[in-house]
Amino acid sequence: MENQNIEKPTFLFGKKNYVIMVIGLVFITLGFIFMAGGGSENPDVFNEEIYNWQRIRLAPTLVIIGLAIEIYAILVNPKK
């Protein structure tokens, strides 16, 4: 008989923590996607699209919400 004291690897977080982390990453990714783009083909022409509500309000809000979700995912107790 071989040694029966083989330990299983333990993860730092539970499944619930990882699911919440993925949700937070989705929010952060969406925020950065909404911030991207909107360049002008002609550098001499100013594009007013850079000041739309999606880039100024929505995208930073999604990133901050995603970071808050990540902090919550780290702090939540997986045993409950």
- Counting DSSP H or I runs of 4 or more residues, the number of helices is 2
Q: How many distinct beta strands?
A: 0
Order of helices and strands: HH
Oligomerization state: single chain
Structural class label: mainly alpha
Beta-strand percent range: under 5%
**What shape does the CA trace take?**
elongated
Radius of gyration, in Å, reads 21 Å
Question: Can you summarize the main beta sheet?
Answer: none
Calculate the mean pLDDT score and round it.
Answer: 88
As residue ranges, the low-confidence spans are: none
Termini Cα gap: 38 Å
Helix percentage range = 55-70%
Q: What's the layout of helices and strands?
A:
Layout: H1 15-35, H2 53-75
Helix pairs in contact: 1-2
Short overview:
With 80 residues, the protein is an all-alpha fold.
Can you tell me about this structure?
The structure is a single chain. The protein has 80 residues and is mainly α. It has a domain at 15-38 and 46-75. The chain is 55% helix and 0% strand. Helix 1 (15-35) packs antiparallel against helix 2. It is elongated. The model has no long low-confidence stretch (mean pLDDT 88).
Features:
80 residues, mainly alpha, 2 helices, elongated
